[in-house]
Every structure is written in structure tokens, then in C-alpha cells.
Amino acid sequence: MTGTHDLAPATADTAPAMAALYARAFDAPWETQWSAGAIRDLLALPTVAAMILGSEPALSGMVMAQAAAGEAEILTIAVDPACRGRGLGRRLLDGAAIWAAARGADRLLLEVAVDNMPARALYLSAGFRIAGRRRGYYARGKAPAVDAEVMELPLVPA
């Protein structure tokens, strides 16, 4: 068992708890994309790793990243709504950046909805900068799709 602020590696066994956390953290219809099976499949890839905060069955946070060809990308990051505002998102970002740099990545990328102001503020405060935009990236059911900002964090001195 890990404490609330201790990062631990995720495994195939933690995939159900990760999927449950994702469902709590996001309103979007991602059930299929981020099911326990999909998470297990991603974790089986040699280029993917994930870290969790908290203990099962109710994790407080998770981050999943992929590194290849000198770049890394955060595939997903989630903090339980009941645990937000405690620095857990920053702890997850820092863990992902350390992992990515250790795998030779020069930068860490992610996408964030332009209307997700708390996440955007977190990423900017962590040193990410806006690198681009993806129009209509996030489907919102019957509501209009929302653009994503592509953000990057340099992992080596420029």
C-alpha cells in the first residue's frame, strides 16, 4: 500500500482501480477507451509506464505516459475530484517528467482542453508551454467539441 503522496508503479493488477479513478475524474464518455482492459493493454507495451497515488480500490491519482524516439507524451493524468487542490497533480507530472527524462526524452507533451482552466494553470506552473492546438479534439456528447492545446515541457536545457 502506498500513502497519498507516494508514487508507485502501476501494474496490470491496478488497471481496474485506474479505470474507476478515470471514470470518477472525467465527465466525458471515455468508458471504452480507458477501460481496465485498455489500460492493461497499454501497460503491456514496452514504451508505456504508469504511476499511481494512493491505494486500491480508491486511488487518489494516476498518470500514464509513453516514451519513444526522444519524445514522451502523457497519455492520461487523473486526480480524484475529492483529492484535488492538494498538489497531487503536480506530483504526478513531476514523476512522469523524471520517468521520461530517464528514457532519453527531450520533451514531454500532453493535450488539455482549452476550457480546463485548473489543468492548464497546473501545466503552465509546472513549466509547460503551449506548442499548438488541435481543433475539435475533445468530443462532448451533444455539446460542441472543444479544442485542445498541445503543451510541451522541455526536459533538457535548451
Automatic annotation (TrEMBL):
Classification via PROSITE patterns: GNAT (PS51186)
Origin superkingdom: Bacteria
Native species: Tistrella mobilis (strain KA081020-065)
Protein name per its UniProtKB record: Ribosomal-protein-alanine acetyltransferase
Keywords: Acyltransferase, Transferase
The keyword Iron is annotated on this UniProt entry: no
Residue span(s) of domain N-acetyltransferase: 5-156
One Pfam entry name: Acetyltransf_1
Listed GO MF terms: acyltransferase activity, transferring groups other than amino-acyl groups
Residues making up the signal peptide according to the UniProt record: none
InterPro entries in the cross-refs: Acyl_CoA_acyltransferase (IPR016181), GNAT_dom (IPR000182), YpeA/RimI_acetyltransf (IPR050680)
